[in-house]
Amino acid sequence: MKYYKESARELPISYEVDVLVCGSGPAGIGAALASARSGAKTLIIESLGDLGGISTSGLMSHWTGRSKSPIYLEILRRSAEKNEGELHGKIVNTIDPEKLKTLYLEMLTEAGAEILLYTFASDVIVEDGTVKGVIIENKTGRSVISAKVVIDATGDGDIAFKSGAEYIKGRESDGRMQPCTIMFKVGGVDLERAVFPGSFETLVNTEKGELQALGKEIIGHPAGHVLLYKSTLPGIVTCNMTNCIDIDGTKAEDLTRATLTCREQIDRIVKFLREYAPGYENCYCISSASLMGIRETRHFKGVYTLTEDDIMNAVQFEDWIVLDAHFNFDIHNLDGAGLDKDGVQHEFKQMTGYTVPYRCLVPERVNGLLLAGRCISGTHKAHSNFRVMPICVGIGEGAGYAAAIAVKKNILPRDVEAKEIQKYILKKAFK
Questions:
Q1: How far does Cα 145 stand from its chain's mean position?
Q2: What is the CATH number of domain 13-172+298-315+357-429?
Q3: pTM of the model
Q4: Which residue, of 294, 350, 398, 425, has the greatest Cβ tally within 10 A?
Q5: Closest C-alpha among 36, 50, 46 to residue 149
């Protein structure tokens, strides 16, 4: 490999804040709102031109799973107020991505958080094992954001990775990661006749055969499952049906290959729906996600690692920061379409909510940094449960309160007592 030696130069410090949140997906939104509402000078940065990550730019269909995060429940309530048509005022888990983009802006602005879009965190400043800020790149140039606490809500843990925090990728046995997806929407659907298989295990019998079986036979590997969800608008359905396997979402080359693969599948899927899915005879693609749906990459080593046994036993940790977290083991098939052999959906028997402990957000060795979202410390199988957005909002919320407390008390995030975080959450939950 050839190299170019970059000249050393001084970088301007463009922002000095108490709490810096990197990434504005559901976890980042929860973190920035909690931090700003607690009085900390908070800045959230996002590489895209809209807030929300997979919930907006990823064209996500709905909030799946649950948690008792007060910020998540507020998002649902305020989304209902913005919904149009027959959903107006109804609190549902269906997402209108365009409305949600605006709602996030409104909520963060109300909270007093600063927002910086079109900005990529390219490096991390670490002194004596403590994160002091990040180096950013944007249209303005290359500069530094200094912060007393940095929250990594990038999904892939890019900040934690560059800080030297320990991690593994994917499945413990072989490092393989869940498939990725580009979500898209189709219009022209006859909703009175349309079918909506909402899981891999949802079977739909039609005049031409069972729909999931037809999908696997006709659409073509590695796609083939049929997942269709109602939207907030008439005649429009969200499709979670493109699929690309053996992708490392931390590599630009792999992300490019995944984009080529998934986009090539969209036309074939639309043709399949027109031919085989009742109600979709006249459907057409009207929009597709501008953000690849990456389900799994880095799992960082925290003070505690959440396991599948913790989830199955509905463990109530003393240092909880998320209450009543619940979902199934949603592991997409690592070899193609459908559910992985280690995944459990309809047969998931544990209906009691578990808790997420604060220790999972604290990197084992790096200071001044908190993890938020799907990159927290957890096993491959546990991750398939806690990676869903309602739980990620709660994780971010806990991180935001913890960061604000650390700043206020002038202590390291790892020294924050979980009971102090819980006071904020319970106060909001029972307000």
A1: 24
A2: 3.50.50.60
A3: 0.97
A4: 398
A5: 36
